[in-house]
Design a protein that fits this description.
Length: 190
Amino acid sequence: MAGVAVGALALTFSTSVPTASAHGWTNAPISRAKYCQAGTAQNCGNIQWEPQSVEGPKGFPNGGPADGKLCSAGIGAFAPLDDQRGGGWPTNNLRSGQSYTFKWHFTAMHSTTDFRYYITKNGWNSNAPLTRGALELNPFLTVPFSGRPPADISHSGTLPGGKSGRHMILSVWTIADTGNAFYQCSDVNF
């Protein structure tokens, strides 16, 4: 009987506590998930302990998380990432058209297909959750990658020209040997 009680307690514990299976986040531009983990952004929910775990179906933009849930990858526990907070998220200050070094930090190095970066269209509604309709669906930077990345990786690219004011960059790390990708939203100001 004691074994059954312990098993039930373990099952309850394992289903009510988020897993910390680990993966990765963007450091440049700094993502909402990382700002939450660092304490720079408040009232973030579980993402503050798991900035590396924003994992959802791959195949963006044809597949992937549903519109309005792109920043959380559709994970209910990470839903605060989808809230635009009336522009209250910390921003990364950038210059339109500048060369930029994008950086990821990984806690588990998965076999990788590529890294893709998308940006919001001029005139997007920054008060509404992020949707495909708000994004330029051709990535402004695609970095093919074969194999497992190191714990920290950088790659250079050029930010889109003709941007001013507040925008969002959606970074997608596509995993080669699973059906998933990792999604990171970074608020930027040009």
